[in-house]
């Protein structure tokens, strides 16, 4: 959830409790996505996997211990490809350091985004986890834009955009990366 150019309201670096909630409900934020202590509260995300359990464990899928795979194996990036695209200047390569295939003393290496993927998730799990990738790529794009705004306006009077992200979803995305 994103609100561009939040009205300056003195106390809060986010939409004021009496202002419209950035979710678009037309309710005041304090009657919608803000708790009584003024913290922001996101909805509990829906379950990622839909439909009955398959009972099948695909040997090539990293989520195979859940015994809920299908038989088709699909290609997946180690780190969400859209997130890599966001941090890559030319959308083609990134610098990689500390990956376990590089060995302990390896230096940074220019690596093509395409090669940072492998056949490692069954189609069912890949489809289910896509919502997390989509959220993360949006979040990191806003995060980058906010960083650029602070630099552009030298930290004085920068445009204050507000982002509300579900902590549960972000945690699940991090678990997926692990
Ligand atoms: Zn709301
Ligand atoms: Zn699977």
Brief digest:
This protein has 178 residues and is of the alpha+beta class. The protein has three helices and six strands.
How does this model look, in words?
- Residues 1-10 have a biased composition (Basic and acidic residues).
- Residues 1-20 are annotated as: Disordered.
- The protein has 3 helices and 6 strands, in the order E-E-H-E-E-E-H-E-H.
- By secondary structure, the chain is an alpha+beta fold.
- Strands 1-6 form a two-stranded antiparallel ribbon. It has a two-stranded antiparallel sheet with strand order 2-5. A two-stranded antiparallel ribbon has the order 3-4.
- The protein has 2 domains: 1-41, no CATH class; 49-177, no CATH class.
- The longest helix has 30 residues, at 123-152.
- 27% of the residues lie in helices and 13% in strands.
- Bound molecules: zinc ion (ZN) (2 copies).
- One zinc ion binds at residues 58, 61, 63-64, 69, 122, 124-125.
What layout of secondary structure does this protein have?
Elements: E1 2-3, E2 73-77, H1 81-87, E3 93-96, E4 109-112, E5 117-122, H2 123-152, E6 162-163, H3 167-177
Antiparallel strand pairs: 1-6, 2-5, 3-4
Helix pairs in contact: 1-2, 2-3
Q: For the largest beta sheet, what order do the strands appear in spatially?
A: 1-6
Bound molecules: zinc ion
**What's the oligomerization state?**
single chain
Please provide the count of β strands: 6
Secondary-structure-based class equals: alpha+beta
Q: What's the end-to-end separation, in Å?
A: 25 Å
Task: Considering the chains and any ligands shown, give keywords for the structure.
single chain, 178 residues, alpha+beta, 2 domains, two-stranded antiparallel ribbon, 3 helices, 6 strands, 27% helix, 13% strand, flat, binds zinc ion
